[in-house]
Amino acid sequence: MTIKWVDSLEVALALIEQYPEQDPMVIRFTDLRDWVLALDEFSDDPKHCSERILEAIQQCWIEEM
């Protein structure tokens, strides 16, 4: 299964699995973007990333924690 920028919940779940000790409340968006791009399941154009998308991913991550 591949995930894209618009799959906020799926991205957040993959990040929780990859970084279980990370507090999503204190993450910098530059780090978040890099971590998403590094996910094995992730397959999307890095240029399609925006602050709004990163906020949505962060919010899903917070809600799932």
Write up this protein.
With 65 residues, the protein is mostly helical. It has one domain: Arc Repressor Mutant, subunit A. The termini are far apart.
Secondary-structure topology with pairs:
Blueprint: H1 8-18, H2 29-38, H3 51-64
Please supply descriptive tags for the structure shown above.
65 residues; mainly alpha; Arc Repressor Mutant, subunit A; 54% helix; globular
Number of domains: 1
The CATH class turns out to be Mainly Alpha
Q: Write the CATH architecture name.
A: Orthogonal Bundle
* Class from secondary-structure proportions: mainly alpha
- Main β sheet profile: none
Q: Mean of the pLDDT scores? A: 97
Tell me, what's the shape? globular
Number of helical stretches of at least 4 residues: 3
- Our estimate of the beta-strand percent is under 5%
Cα gyration radius (Å) = 10 Å
Oligomer: single chain
Write a concise synopsis of the structure shown.
With 65 residues, this protein is mainly α. It contains three helices and no strands.
